[in-house]
Amino acid sequence: MKISNYLLVFVLAFMSMGSCKDQAKTNEVTALYQCPMKCEGEKTYSESKSCPVCKMDLLALAQPSALLEEPFRIPETSIFNLTTKWNTEEDETISLIDLKGKPLVMVMIYTTCKAACPRLVADMRNIEKQIPEVKQEDLQYVLISIDPETDTPKRLKEFAIENQMDGKQWTFLQGSVSAVREFANVLAVKYKQISPMDFSHSNIISVFNPKGELVHQQEGLGVDNIETVDHILELLK
Amino acid sequence: MTLLRLTFCIALCWTTQAWCQSSMESIKGGTYIPLYGRDSLQVTISDFDMDVYPVTNQDYLQFVKEHPKWQRSKVIKLFADKNYLSQWVSDTILGTSQSLNAAVTNISWFAAKDYCDCQGKRLPTVDEWEYVAMSNDKMPDARPLETYNEYILSWYEKPKTFNNEIGSTFKNYWGIYDLHGLVWEWTLDFNSVLVSGESRKDVDNDSNLFCGSAAIGATDLMNYAAFMRYAIRGSVKARYTMKNLGFRCVRNKNEITNENL
Fold it and tell me: What proportion of chain A, given as a percentage, has pLDDT over 90?
């Protein structure tokens, strides 16, 4: 009996420590690897290592079956590679990939902001004004809060209504502190909380194509947005 | 029976060791004034544990074997630039001049963050890192000492210290090695440092941080040594990798994971 107890503890400890590992493994289970120089002919390996002959990294072989199952392949530089969860102003939980299919115009703000954010929001609406009415539905404007503790879905909804940004084309996102930090790093947005109510942050509006790849960034406040609008119109063609 | 128990214990300790190779030291929190914080604003640090050494090539090698998505040939461009692990010979073989016990470098922030997450740890914040790094071997805050600053500045002049083995610099007040003298280190919120060309024009709160440049006077070595660190943090992006930039992890006090089972 005692022995089995010890065994159980051991197995549990082993499993919990290996959990991260298991996750990674399931993705790899069907991949096959081959030396790019074909030192050993058509020989394949089930794990990625280096070729025993020439020492080059083995390359993963294309998986036609996987391609068929998943028609949309996320490009390497796409923000849809981020797996974090977000709450919208409508209190729905989404992943960034749920935004795929439309060009995205994204900006990071916080709703208690008195200085730059109203101007950033104005910049976003200026961009909106220059997009033809018929195209509005084909575009998604996304505002991400850098203050997820204050900016709850309820607060974001109020902010949307106050600023006449409550239409379908506007999405507001609340993430975890860590998800926001990660996303800001993808956009190269810098920010720092300088008091409970105030943040210092860079003012960057980013445009993504429907696959989530960054196509343009506009830096600064109240800057000429012709270039940004051009990029968006190009994507809407 | 006792023997059996002992065997299990040893086996358990051994596996625990394998996953969490780096030992940690306890850091007692406190308040201090960072050199490039806001207007002499005091920062309060809670108690936490910090890795004694930077993460080594050996640790990271183990990690990429368990998490193939972080291998050089598989990492996606969103998460690392093309120099990621560029010194390695292949996905799982170190470069010939690289030591297993040297700090791993050419690592992006995303990779460092995920590594720590997988250990049940996290990256230290800028404030935490600076708090621990302001000590010398005897004092928790040695910043006013000339010797402390000279040590750091003499390191800046030494080439290729990233090849040195961990533990080859001094053990500080907290029992932590190598914060100065081997490699620069990633921090969780490095992007909170608003020191960069770009930040001067597009950050709404015209940052006081950049006033630090005024501190680069020959008389103020203390500010200069720290300014270099902040300048690096302000100039990198999360997918960048550099051959003298590594990392270590920390853990909150209240988040002791199952390793103490």
Answer: 50
